[in-house]
Specification:
about 0% strand
C-alpha cells in the first residue's frame, strides 16, 4: 500500500527508538496501530459504499435497457386482443365433447350430393 522497503522501515523504527526512547516506544506503536486500524476500517467502509453505488447504477442501467427492449417488442408485436376481453377464461374452460366418428366429413356414399 505505501510501498515501503524493509530497509526503510527499519530506518524509521531506529529513528523512532532514538527520538521516543525504548520506554515509551511500545505505547506509541500501540496508539499508531489503533489509528491505522481505524483508518483501514474507514477505507473499507468507503469502498463498500462506492461498490454499492456502482452496483445500483449498473442495475438501473440494466433495468432501463430491459424496459426499452420490452417497449420495442411491444411496438413490434402489439396485442391483438386486450387481456380484459375474457379470452383467457375461454382457453381455460374444458373442451367441448369430442367429435364422434359420424361427425367427420361426409362422402358421396353417405348422402352428399
Amino acid at each position: 500500500m505505501f510501498d515501503i522497503a524493509s530497509s526503510e522501515f527499519f530506518l524509521v523504527l531506529l529513528i523512532a527508538l532514538v527520538v521516543i526512547g525504548p520506554k515509551d516506544l511500545p505505547k506509541v506503536l500501540r496508539v499508531v496501530g489503533k489509528w491505522v486500524g481505524k483508518g483501514r476500517a474507514i477505507v473499507a467502509q468507503f469502498r463498500a459504499g462506492i461498490d454499492d453505488m456502482v452496483r445500483e447504477s449498473e442495475l438501473k442501467e440494466l433495468e432501463e435497457k430491459w424496459k426499452k427492449q420490452n417497449e420495442d417488442i411491444m411496438r413490434e408485436y402489439p396485442q391483438s386482443v386486450p387481456p380484459e376481453s375474457g379470452e383467457d377464461e375461454a382457453v381455460k374452460k374444458e373442451p367441448q365433447l369430442p367429435l364422434s366418428s359420424n361427425d367427420g366429413p361426409q362422402t358421396k356414399e353417405q348422402g352428399v350430393s
